[in-house]
Structure formats: C-alpha cells, structure tokens
Write the structure tokens for this entry.
Amino acid sequence: MNSKLSRRRFIKGVIYSSAAAASGASYYLATAQTNSNAIVERLLSLTVNGRTRLVDVAPSETLAFTLRNKLGLTGLKVACNRGECGACTILLDDVANYSCSILTHTVKQKSITTVEGLKTADGSLSAVQQGFIEELAPQCGFCTPGQVMAATALLRTNPNPTRTEAREALAGNLCRCGAYDHYLNGVMRAAELLS
Amino acid sequence: MTFMHIGKDFTPPDVEGKVTGDAKYVEDFAPEGMVTARLLTSPLASGRVVSIDASEALRMDGVLGVLTADDLPPSSAPDDPVLASDDITYIGQPIAAIAAISDSIAESAIDKIRIDYERRGFVTDPLESLVEGGPDAYPSGNVLVQTNSLEDENATIRGGISKIKWPHSEIEKLRNGEEPRDVEFADGWEYGDLSASFAESEVIIQESFVTAGTPHHCLEPRSSMAYWQNGKCFFYASTQSQSAVVEPLADLLGIEPENVCMISENTGGGFGSKGRVYPTMAITGRFAQLLNRPVQLRITREEEYYLGVGRPGMQGWVKTGVRADGTVAAVDVIIISDGGPTGRNSASSSAQHISVVYTPTAMRLRNIPVFTNTAPRGAQRGPGQNEMSAAIAPIMDKAARQLGMDRAQFRRVNAPHSESPVYESQGPITSAFMAEAIDIASNMFNWTEREAAPRQRNGSKVRGLGIGLGYHSAGGSGYDGLVRITPDGRIHLHSGVGNLGTYSYAGTARAAAEVLKCRWDSCEIVRGSTDQHLPHASTQGGSNTIFTHTRTNWVAAEDAVLKLKRIAAIEFGGDADEYEISNERVFKTTAPSEGFSYAEAAAKAIELGGAFSGQDYPSDIHPITQRAVQGIAGTGLIGVAKDNLPKRGIAPGLMISMAEVEIDLETGKHEVLDYVGIADCGTVIHPQGLAQQINGGAVWGFGMASSERHVYDPQNALPANTGLYQAKLPTIMDVPIEMKSGAVDIADPYNPAGGRGVGEPSQGSAVAAITSAIADALGHSFNRVPVTPDMIVNFANKKDQESALLAINTF
C-alpha cells in the first residue's frame, strides 16, 4: 500500500483541510493514478459474487470505487466515502465491511459478495431480501443495500438472532429515513423464513 | 366505506429494486462518453470575487471547460446564486466549476485557478447581527424584507435586504425571557384581542427559547447528470417530483419546458431539500450543452453540508396565557430566524403550529429573518412547525402543571376539531379528530396511570414522561390525474409525484384502481421520467401527497369510468348511466351480458378517437399534462382530469406522541425507553407506509431533540459539522427497540378516499414528546433543542451552561 495515500491519511486530509480543498478530496485521492507505484501489480484477479473478475486497479483505489466504477456493481452506494454510514457495506468472506474504507489491493485473496450476488441459484430473492420486502423495510432505499448486507452477514453466523442481536448487527448502518424499526422487523422476518 | 385497495397493505413496485440493488440513483447512471465536473468553493464566509484566472487550468490535458458566474444568468442578493461573484456569503459556496475527463483531473485543475478575493466581515449568530453595532451578513444590511408569501414551502423567496438593529438592552431582555420593548420587526400577524385574552388568563408564562438549525443529511447527495439530444436536455437528478421541477429547471437552463426530460426514478432522501431545482443543476446542464456530451456533477458528503440547504434556527420569546379551565387564551410570540444567506425562514409556520394544536383565542407573531454567513436555508421536514413544537411543549407543560391539570387532558381541552378556526386568518380546516387521537395514545401508552405515578430515581438515572403534538398542512388541490387503459387490458396509472420512499406515489395510485374497481395486478404505475408522459403533479413534500394525489387519481379514474360507460352505450345502446363496471368489465346494469372487457373498450376508444383516446382533452389541465396526453393519444382509453373537487381551507396532518426517557445524570445521555405515535390523518391509505412515516418521523424527532445542529467556528465561520457523525443523526442504537404507532382512521370529508398526510407532524410530535419528557425528568426545561449531554451534566451539577443565553450556531 502506498504510504503517502493510506486510507487514514486521506481521511485526515478530508477532515482537516479547508472547505475548498476538502471538496471531493477523498474521491480524488481514492482514484488518483500515481506514477510512483509503477511496480505495484495493476491487473488484479478478484472473486466477486462467485465469479473471477480481472480488473485494472490503481494502488490507492477503494473497493467501493472498483466495484461501482470498474465492475458496474452500483448496488452498493457511496453516501459518505469515509466509513460513517454503511451504505457501501459488502461481505468479505461472509463478514460485513465498508467497501469505501478498504483498498482493493488488500482483498485479492478474499471472496467478495455484493448485494447483486445474493439471489439464490434459481434466481429467487434471499431470505433477507424477501423479509425486507414483506416488512416494507426500506424507505428511500439508498442505505438499503448496505442494510441487506449487514443483515445477511448476521444471519450467516447467527440464523436465529434475538431482536437485540439484530439491532447490534445493524448498528453500523445509518438510515436517514429512520426506518430502523422496519429493518429490524425485516431481519426477524428473514430469520423466520430461513427456519 | 368499504374499499378494495385503500387501507390494505401491498408491495409497492419499487421495493424489490431497493433490496436487490437494481434501483438506480443519479450516480448509478454513466452513459458512454460521460465526463465530470467539480466545484471550486469559497474559503471565505463573506466577500467578493475581484478576479478569476483559469487560464492555467484550461491548458491542462483533460480539462474541457470552466464556468464562472459570468457564464450563467445573473442573480441578485439575497438569492442563492449558482456561482457566486459579487456576494460570497458562506464558506463552501460554489464560485467556479471545471469540467474534465476525470474527477482527479478536474480537482487538479481547480487547484490551478487563481482568484483574488476581497474579504468582508461576517456573522454566524442572528442576535449578534441584530444588536446595535453588530456585523451584517451583507454590506447593505442584515434582514430580509420578504415580499411574497411562503405558503408554498418550495417557493423562491422574493424580497430585498434591509437593516434592523436593536439596542443592547432589548437583546439582553430577549435572552433573559423578557419582552423587548420599542423595537422594530420585519413582519408578523395578529388575530383576536390579545390584551383581553391575557386578562382572562389564570396562568401567564413567558420564556425565551432557541432551536438549532439542522442539516438534512439526505444519504444521496444532490448530484446531477445531463446530456443533450436534438435540442432536448435529458436531466438525471435527485428530486422530490419528476413533474414539478420541469418548469423551474427549464428556466434555469433557458429553454422551453417541453425540451426538458427529467429522470428521477428514486431519490435517496429529500426531506424538503430537493423540492425545488438545486442551483448546481445549472452547471451540469450548461456544461453538457457546451461540451455536447454527458456531464456528471457529483456532490460530496462534505459539500452537502456547505451548499445543501438546512433548517433555519430560531431565537425567540413566547408569552402564553391559559384560563382556569385549561383553554389557551392568548399566545404572543417573537421569532428571530437564522435565515442563513438567503433569509429563508419559517417564522410564520412556526406560529401557525401553535394556532392549530393549542387553538388560542388570540395570538400575535412578530418576527425578523436575519441573514447569517452560514449554510443556505430551506424547507426541512415540518419547517417551522416541528422546531416550534419542540420549544413550546415544555412551556405548555408548565402551564398545565400550574393549573394542576393532567398534561394530556390539557392538550385534549385545546385539541383542534373539524370546526376549529386556524392560522392568522382563523380560517377553516377540512377536518380534525385530535381529541380522539389523544385518547387512543393515552390508552396505548397507559398515560394516566404512568403520569400519576411518582418519578423514582435509580442511582444516577432519572425518568420522565413526555407528550408532544405535531402539525403540518397536509394537502393541496388543483393538480391533474392521468390514467390509460390499453387494448391488452393493462391499466396504466401515470404519476409525476417524486419517490422519496414514502410509497405515497403508489398508495395514491391505488385510488384510481379503487374507482376502476380493478385488480391491482392489472395496474402498472408509470413514473420516473417525464418522457413517460406524466401529469402535472405536486412535489412529494409538505405531507401533501396522500391528500393531493388520491384526489387526482380519483378524478382521472372517474373520467375513465365515464368514458367506459359512454363507449359501452355506443356499442350496446342506451345511455351511459345505464351501465356499471365490475371485474374489469363495463356492462348494462339490467343485462350484464351486454358489455365488454376494459381491453375491448380500450380498443374501441382508439377506434372512436376524440376525447376517448386523448386526441381531445379538458381545457383546464396544465400544459405539462396536455403534453403528456398528446404523447399517449391514440394508444388506449385515456382518463384525464384536473382535480376540481371541493376543499375547505387547510387539510391538517396531525400527530400526538408519548414517550418515556431515562436520563443518566452522570453522562448526560438520555435513552428513549418507550414511544407511541398516533396519527390523525383521515382514512389510512397504506398501513405499512403510515407506520414507516410515523416511526421514521419519530427518529427525526429524537435527532432534533438530542444531537442534530449546525455548529460554526465563530472565529472564521467554518462549519464544524461536515460529517454525518458530527451533526449526528440517530443510529439504530438511539431509538427504542420497538416502536408503537396507530391512527384515528376517521375519513376526511374533503378527500374521496378519506386520507390526509402525516409525514412531517410525526417528527414534530416526537421531538416535543422528548423535550417534554426531559423537562419532566429533570424538573427543568432548557427551552432549547438539541438538549445535549453537556447541558444535562452542567444542570445536574448546578454549573453554568457553556453556551451564551440563546446563542445559536456556535458552541
């Protein structure tokens, strides 16, 4: 990883720089092409939703950027781009992660799952997706793919959670519409569907 | 009335896309050849641009163009310009834009633009500007003199800049809960005999209050993307209406409305901030036109806090007189609004809140919108009403206590009913059943028993109960409806209403299905892009959609039913009134076999032409609807009509909330233990959608009560809260693990489906319930929102508060 452009450094840059300089700074740094990293491997083989994808990745590129802009997986959303909101949540080996806060080069060995990869083999919706629909969990929908992934990660390790456990599992995903009660209902409904 | 569809849950058609990731938002569209634009934003809170030199930026490889204020239509202060030049009024204000083949090149190019600025003084706290000798946000003054009404929350402010100053002594009176004397105001209204009503009062309370300005925090930023084809601009934006933004966007781009195609399938949060076009849309559209290729202007989270609009804060004073029987006799209120650089304020609607939910016999508002060099202000969920609800609830509690009256009973005595006069005009409302709502909430919460029980302290923790009322005008009229039955039997319900996630675009479409007595499976909602031929619709804002667009769908479907019957009469003989509809057939009432299916009737409509298939249409429909009908003429049976149904006065959306909070006096943190929200919103149209709005609004209320606020560094006017965690919206851990909601469910007589909206009052009643509960627990009201932990800790330790009295926007 390029020490000059580590995630921590550019988050600090965004927080402390002036308004004019801060505008879009995180995005710029996330996508900057730096000549000093010519020796870093660019063509990565990523495992995304069960498929192997070859993709040209800059050293400082975030996983959110790669998935959305290089692989067209626009289900995940970039709402804050600095690890605050969870709209970009994806699974790395079944663990929920913020893809805006992970450099793509660090996940070469991992299995990446996005919301597009949740449909079952026969094309039907996953239990979480079905549960969310039945409980009308989403409102505006912008945070929903992240909520779906956080709930999916929970149910893969704990298929029969209590409401308190489900609430804690969704604690890293903000919803400005305030649909929290309904997302919780959706998780509990999904657990019922799985059983 | 028994309905087929209304009052029943259903799955809105856009939900599946939201859970699968298929739902597309602005930044998800990336047409071939798309380039990007970035903004150069102001490092100054106040000043002007002396000169801009972008020559070095323009010489860079990959840079395609630059826009400055000179390239766009002129604007004059206090309008929020697309790009500032003569009047820079806040940090982060756009000054120039660069288009380039990538974001990174555009960002680098912005660094190469050289600007000479002239600095000016600035102000972040309205009272510091109002005091004699205080700084002004504009060189020419500090106060907006508004010349148009803001009954439409999304209307552009018209007015000029003036100067009002108060002596230091009168500012100090306001800060200390006393009425300032012999001072000038910018605006106001009055009804009833104020002094006579105060004379009748058993209890008179006067207090100062302050409510913070708050950002909207829409998770989808106000990004936009545009391209031009054959003189037509295809515009992708995050808006609260596909239809209502077409004409203002055309104005912004300097083209005719028919040359705008607005695409807004999903909107990742609006809450009032996307009800109008946003100024940066002009940059996207203009660049796309100049470069003749798709241009995306992405707005970052940080930029949202600079140029996204926020709720105006208030500094005020209120004197309340209550009679011995608990009825509110008089309310006298002064509101100093923090109008930011545009002067946008909600003083009148704040006072109207009191006039509706406490129904005082006499009332007076005096107000001043003061400019500050902070974020532009605009409508935010329940603008005015909700922050006033937060401020007034503990004051009304105090009045009830001084009378020895139960706080819920006090609200019930003053509750609006269907014949209550409201507002400064003391005009009518369509209906209200607030006493019934209070009874339902009291029963569900077990209010009377819990209120009577002593408040017990548990270690460092104290508990309190709160009650809050919410109100917003919730319904308009005069828009158009459009339905189409095609020869394949499909029923197309055209909707121009935005899609904020309330699902009311779909709930209201079900009113048309109700009139057509058809299966929901036979219907499809046509929406998302104006080239889908959408009728003239309101914004999805102001809690109005349920009332406004059940009516438009109803009248359009009635027109379709009439045409079905006329076509059947032509085919089978007799008059239209001899025919009935059922099971998607139109048939002779006395001989049901004489009739045909909707599909066959649609084919016949095409054959007959004229009004049956949209070649002719009513003369009173809006030009947007006329163009929509022209676009689908000849493709089926067209039902189209303007909503000319009767409406009496204001359609009120009303809410009551009850809550229990537990406050830890050591940490200052409070937790909402129990919450009940009951709506008086007429007939429930969509139960799941209603629960979403009641609970979602409550979460907003919890945020307003405890954590959300604008904060500026008073040395430089730098915004300190440019992140979600800084102006903090509630997380799932900040809300009760289960929330309870319900509704009165009594039909409004001025809506054929019986419904009124309630999306905004649900926040107002919730924040009021929390401020009321905190005051109950502490035996002390701060008369301020948010109530932050440091305030509670200081109070518990009998220390002075860190903020100056009535300070706003600062620590």
Remarks:
- Chain A has two domains: 3-116, 127-194.
